[in-house]
Amino acid sequence: MEEIINRVANSKLKTFNLEDLYPAGQREVIDISQWLTEGFILREKDFRESLKAFDWSVYENSYVALQCSTDAIVPAWAYMLVTTYLQSVAKKIIVGSLTDLETVLYTEVIQEFDVSEYDNEYVIVKGCSNKPVPQNAYILLTQKLQTVVKSLMFGEACSSVPLFKAK
């Protein structure tokens, strides 16, 4: 009987999993329409009073995305004012969706990530994930890895898509 050899385990491929860079912490969305009159009208005095009375501690150590779910026209200063209350409790605050928040978090992590261990290596970026990895994270990682790797692929070792080969 012929011996079964695991060629994937014996290959020179280095697997990169973006989930490994996932910043731990609770993600929250704050809909500021809750502090607008009828969800649409920003009355500065009422808005300020609502913010002052709100319990901001619920966002302790959270990553926060600020948004308005209605078609209200919200001035920039309103988001800035909300930020002044969150600054002392939240880890990060952005205006946008949860996907926007993940993109900002991954951008920061990837910019700081040292890719020297992938220098002149055959790298495959794992495609499946259980955590919310935004598409932009794959783009940012590709740009960073392409400067150092010998070969870059996407997917799994058994079914990868070649993306780049150094000349």
Architecture blueprint of SSEs:
Blueprint: E1 13-16, E2 27-31, H1 44-53, E3 63-67, H2 76-86, E4 92-95, H3 98-112, E5 122-126, H4 135-146, E6 151-156, E7 159-165
Parallel strand pairs: 1-5, 2-3, 3-4, 5-6
Antiparallel strand pairs: 6-7
Organism: Leeuwenhoekiella marinoflava DSM 3653
Protein name: DUF2480 family protein
Pfam family, one: DUF2480
Which characteristics define this entry?
DUF2480 family protein; 4-stranded mixed beta sheet; DUF2480; 4 helices; about 170 residues; 2 domains; 3-stranded parallel beta sheet
Describe what you observe in this structure:
It is a single chain. This protein is α/β, with parallel strands linked by helices. It has 2 domains: 13-23 and 102-165, no CATH class; 27-90, no CATH class. 29% of the residues lie in helices and 22% in strands. The strands form 2 sheets. It has a 4-stranded mixed β-sheet with strand order 1-5-6-7, covered by helices on one side. A 3-stranded parallel β-sheet has the order 2-3-4, sandwiched between helices. The longest helix is centred in the middle third of the chain and has 15 residues, at 98-112. It is elongated, with a radius of gyration of 22 Å. The two termini are 41 Å apart.
Task: Give me the side-by-side strand order of the main sheet.
Answer: 1-5-6-7
How many helical stretches?
A: 4
Unreliable residue stretches: none
Shape: elongated
Order of helices and strands: EEHEHEHEHEE
| Strand percent estimate | 15-25%
What is the number of E strands? 7
Straight-line distance between termini: 41 Å
Largest sheet: 4 strands, mixed
- The share of residues in helices is 25-40%
Averaging pLDDT over every residue, what do you get? Answer: 94
Number of domains: 2
Structural class: alpha/beta
Oligomerization category of the chains in this entry: single chain
What is the radius of gyration?
22 Å
